[in-house]
Structure formats: C-alpha cells, structure tokens
Amino acid sequence: MESHKVYKGEKAASYDENAQFEKGNRILHKYLLEDILTFLDYTPKTFIDLGCGTSFFSSSFFDLFPNIKGVLIDGSDEMLAQATEKLSPRDIQVEYVHSSFQDLVLKDVVDPIDVIFSCLAIHHIDEAQKEILYNKIFNQLTDRGVFILFDLFALKDPSEQKLLAHIAYRDIQRKLKKYLGIEQEGIELEELSLGNIKRNDTREKKREGDQESYLDDIVGTLKKIGFKHVILVNQENRFISIVAFKKN
Questions:
Q1: Chain-wide mean pLDDT for the chain?
Q2: Rounded CA gap, 168 and 238, in Å?
Q3: Are 85 and 64 in contact (CB under 8 A)?
Q4: Which Gene3D superfamilies does UniProt cross-reference here (predicted)?
C-alpha cells in the first residue's frame, strides 16, 4: 500500500504525537537539518520538502531563511492540510503540492531548486522508483544545490539488521515508559514489552509498504546519478542522514 493512502484520518492527526516515540530523536534530527543548512556558503532561495508531512522540518527552512520560497509536497491531502494550518499564520512564500512520488513531475511544479529535503518518505517506494526520483531530484537542483535525505535504511546481514531493530525497539520502549511515568523498575506492561513493540512495528511497516534500501546502495545510486559528494552525516539505529552535493 502506498504511504499516502495510510496517512488518513486519525493516523494523520496523531502523526506528530506518535513520531516522538517511533521516529527516532526528532529534536536531534531537526538540529541536524539546521546545522547542515547553516553550513552552506550561500543563502538558499528555494527549497522542496518531499513528503513534508505536517511541516515539522519545513518550518526550519523558514526560521533560518525568512525570504526563502518553499514547495511542500505530500501524497496525503490530510497531512498537507495540517502543514497548511501550521504555517498559515506566518508571512512566508510557500506552495503546497498534493502528489505521490510516482506521479511527481518536479519541473512542472517548480523552478530549479537550491535545496531538496526528504525525511522518512522515500523508503515507501521500490528501488526502481527511488532511482527515478533521485534522477528527478538531481536534474531539478541548481549547480550549487544539495539533496538532504533523512530516512530508514537496511543492512544486508540479517543479524546486523536485528541489532539495529532491537536498539530501535528499546528506544521506543524507554520513551513510552517515560511518557507514562513508569520508568521505575518492577512495573511491566504487556503493551510496552519488546515483543509487542516489535509486532506493532512489523505490522505498521507492512501496512505502509516500507521498502528500505541498503545503505551502500543509496550512496552508490546517488553517486552513479552524478552527485559529486555523498556524505553520511549521522546514523541513529535504523535512521540515517545523508547530504549529497550536486557539484561542490
């Protein structure tokens, strides 16, 4: 199932609340994005957020660069509605585009772009579609442009993959216990057992049609397409952050 068909109704409405438990260290990821953006030796005039969700990360672009023009793209109309509601009070240049990645024709909706960003979205499509999308991204960027990818990834060795999953489940468990105020020893709930967290995670990944790429394959594909520098800047259990510079 395509992810935009999943993020409807209650699931879309509760996305940000659930993300604080399920999507790694969101605050750290936001700081990381801002660190990358402030590293650039120019002030970007335009950006795209592919799979923008509720605009959690998009807001950082407007915070850092008040005059930037943003194009927020998502396949879920309900997620776009939340993004619109959050950003509407701000005096910013923003366009919202409702489109799946498979149907997206970037050159028809935007001019050449300085920064293209995507967080936890591209892993929903298959390898052939990813390569097509990465080519679209490369071709849409200005020569000084940069592609920033935060996403899930997989390891080829099953035992190594199990370790990353275990660390991720423990992280979810700790956050939930802290949220519920039951961090002390001796209080155990079946809902918060690692086994139950694993079952829920497996079910959701299947429901959303997750198709994580191998890390080496992501880097190799981006280099093959033509990105001059492809840098892994962070790994947090199953989450990676990659910066790909087109020319510089």
A1: 90
A2: 7
A3: no
A4: Vaccinia Virus protein VP39
